[in-house]
Design goal:
- The complex is a heterodimer of chains A (about 325) and B (about 280).
- Chain A is α/β, with parallel strands linked by helices.
- Chain A has a single domain (about 15-310), classed as Rossmann fold (3-Layer(aba) Sandwich), CATH 3.40.50.
- Helix content of chain A is about 40%, strand content about 10%.
- Chain A has 11 helices and 7 strands.
- In chain A, strands 1-2-3-7-6 form a 5-stranded parallel β-sheet, with helices on both faces. In chain A, strands 4-5 form a two-stranded antiparallel ribbon.
- In chain A, a hairpin with a 2-residue loop joins strand 4 (about 190) and strand 5 (about 190-195).
- Chain B is an alpha/beta fold and about 280 residues long.
- Chain B folds into 2 domains: about 5-140, 3-Layer(aba) Sandwich (Rossmann fold), CATH 3.40.50; about 155-285, 3-Layer(aba) Sandwich (Rossmann fold), CATH 3.40.50.
- Chain B is about 40% helix and about 20% strand.
- Chain B contains 10 helices and 10 strands.
- In chain B, helix 6 packs across helix 10 and helix 7 (about 205-215) packs across helix 8 (about 230-240).
- The longest helix of chain B is centred in the middle third of the chain and has 15 residues, at about 170-185.
- Chain B is globular, with a radius of gyration of 19 Å.
- The chains are: A alpha/beta (about 325), B alpha/beta (about 280).
- Chains A and B meet through helix 5 and helix 6 of A and helix 2 and helix 3 of B.
């Protein structure tokens, strides 16, 4: 695993400069999106809550960079990053956050339920572990349809101890389903420390209980995530069955926007912030002369404009009509 | 319940599973979202308690919660009901749980023909369907149409016509009502036996039409009376046809106790044909 000094995995040969720049752009897009979501929440423009992905961008981007468009993901309550990385439209996402009729869910889902089934995004999920069975079932459907599509299932360290993971992992193993379980170990399930509530220090060892590979990677290093998840995706696509990849990461912000964060100390946060995945990847791309510092800055400005445009689109969008209440009700 | 299926359709489509109710339900939902049309078989409906998360929080919500852009064509199938000494964890009738949740269709066939026709409709439906059979009805004999036979949802069936008392029954209670109707007929009391067949959607119009004719309503099911579907049906009838009622509607339901093992106690926990006879006599008195 990489150290805090900022060393990173080597750049995989198959990633073109354009793809690498695209990955950095996506990480910036995710961060900016969630920064704006927090601002909108604090302005009172959003209801419910929002769970920022800030600090974890390397996981969604590294993992989704290994996928094809027809592959499917399931996401979590902290899902904006996954959705963007799988190709979600920030304008439709932002409109959903504001509860507008133009949002992905016509304003009926909100932050925790953004989905775009046609784009392979089988939804964020408000239930911890709720996507595990869905991703495994989608993998079964791909197999039945004789397609080599892969399901990629994001879940957090909190879901490690949900029973559905045991049941689904066993089923995926005995049926050799093309599913990759990507655990984002961001160290805390709400306020509960993963190391206090999980039976083993490295949850990847649990894969051995199901007879499939388990690996941990540096979730603050987009290239290490790409390498680890890529190997698992290739294995799944080849018909060799499921894998577990644990991405060791950290959320820079609280569990949700209102989290008082009284359960972790500032020094710990600073240690992890020093490993900011965006800064690290930017340094690598600049050092490798894939990008000049000026180009990297321009990328940030470009993403900022794009997210502002999404906010403007959302704010200009209409609220749902009252008649929408019973639309799509069939029972 | 699945005899011959694997021979006919092969082990890829007809899969034995480990005892993992939550996972098989959740896999069914995920597969349905991804283009398959699965039927998830739980054996006992009691075991659906282990799978309520994917049924209630995922399957029932997804289409609406995602703005109408997802389909979940999955059937959850199980046997419910008492009468065979299976005791408290293998005898419950739990249809009210599912009726309570917007986003689930709930089917309760009482005859072989309806079981075939409703299962066909359930599998073809693009939305999640909870298909509940009664274990004592598996040995029921009756005509079954050969070939294409689909029974629409939301169409109650009048199993026996009558002028004096409307009896809405579910599952075995349809058959007990038919037996009671024979007894009552000898006394000059005509029982109209209405089988809703699907509880969601509920064909309240057929029930209302019957009540407007008879002026008397009796609703009977094995499921616990408290919070049961009978209360819902009666509430809808009272709200829509109060002026047509000649007597207060009556519920004949399972007692509010865990189903006991002992045969006499089990019988006492369930409504019987004689109870229907007595209740009908009182309604017309």
């Amino acid at each position: 695993m990489s150290s805090t000094s900022g060393t990173v995995a080597e750049i995989p040969a198959e990633l073109s400069p354009a793809q690498l720049v695209g990955m950095l752009r996506m990480m910036l897009r995710i961060r900016r999106f969630d920064q704006r979501a927090l601002e909108l929440y604090r302005e009172g423009a959003m209801r419910g809550t929002t769970h920022p992905y800030i600090g974890m961008e390397a996981v969604a981007v590294g993992a989704c960079a290994t996928l094809r468009p027809q592959d499917r993901i399931t996401s979590t309550h902290r899902g904006h990053g996954h959705c963007l990385a799988k190709g979600g439209d920030p304008r439709l996402m932002m409109a959903e956050l504001l509860g507008r009729a133009t949002g992905y869910c016509k304003g009926k889902g909100g932050s925790m339920h953004i989905a775009d089934v046609d784009a392979g995004i089988l939804g964020a999920n408000g239930i911890v572990g709720g996507g595990i069975g869905l991703a495994t079932g989608a993998a079964l459907a791909a197999r039945l349809a004789r397609r080599d599509d892969v399901s990629l299932c994001f879940f957090g360290d909190g879901a490690l101890n949900q029973g559905i993971l045991h049941e689904a992992a066993n089923l995926a193993a005995i049926w050799k389903l093309p599913v990759v379980y990507v655990c984002e170990n961001n160290q805390y399930a709400m306020s509960a420390r993963a190391d206090a509530f999980t039976s083993v220090p490295d949850p990847a060892v649990r894969a051995a209980a199901y007879g499939f590979p388990g690996a941990s990677c540096d979730g603050m290093d987009v290239l290490d995530v790409y390498r680890a998840v890529g190997a698992a995706v290739a294995r799944a696509r080849a018909g060799d069955g499921p894998s577990l990849v644990v991405c060791v990461t950290y959320r820079f912000m609280g569990h949700h926007v209102g989290d008082p964060l009284n359960y972790r100390d500032k020094a710990e946060v600073e240690r992890w912030r020093a490993r900011d995945p965006i800064e690290r990847f930017r340094r690598v791309l600049v050092a490798q002369r894939i990008l000049t510092p000026a180009e990297a800055d321009a990328l940030g400005a470009e993403v900022e404009r794009e997210i502002e445009e999404a906010v403007a689109f959302a704010k200009a969008s209409p609220e749902p009509e009252a008649s929408a209440l019973e639309e799509d009700v069939y029972a | 319940m699945t005899r011959g299926l694997v021979e006919e359709f092969g082990p890829e489509r007809v899969r034995d599973t480990p005892i993992s109710e939550e996972a098989i339900a959740a896999l069914g939902v995920g597969a349905a979202m991804a283009g398959a049309r699965p039927v998830v078989e739980f054996m006992y409906a009691d075991f659906m308690a282990l799978a309520m998360e994917p049924i209630v929080n995922q399957a029932a919500k997804i289409r609406y919660m995602f703005g109408g852009k997802a389909r979940v064509p999955v059937v959850f199938r199980a046997q419910e009901g008492a009468g065979r000494g299976n005791a408290a964890q293998h005898s419950q009738s739990l249809e009210a749980w599912f009726c309570h949740i917007p986003g689930l269709k709930v089917v309760t066939p009482s005859t072989p023909a309806d079981a075939k026709g409703l299962l066909v409709t359930a599998i073809r439906d693009d939305n999640p369907v909870v298909f509940l059979e009664h274990k004592l009805l598996y040995n029921t004999k009756g005509p079954v149409p050969a070939g294409e036979h689909a029974v629409p949802f939301g169409a109650a069936d009048i199993k026996r016509a009558g002028r004096h008392v409307t009896c809405v029954g579910i599952h075995t209670m349809v058959h007990k009502a038919l037996a009671a109707a024979e007894t009552l007929a000898r006394e000059g009391i005509e029982l109209e036996v209405v089988d809703p067949r699907t509880l969601v959607p509920l064909d309240i119009e057929t029930i209302l039409a019957s009540v407007r004719k008879t002026g008397r309503l009796l609703v009977t099911h094995e499921a616990y009376e408290r919070g049961g579907v009978a209360g819902e049906i009666i509430a809808q009838v009272v709200a829509a046809a109060f002026d047509w009622l000649d007597a207060p509607p009556v519920r004949l339901c399972g007692r509010n106790v865990p189903i006991p093992y002992n045969g006499a106690l089990e019988m006492a926990a369930l409504p019987q044909a004689d109870d229907i006879v007595v209740a009908a006599r009182q309604l017309v008195a």
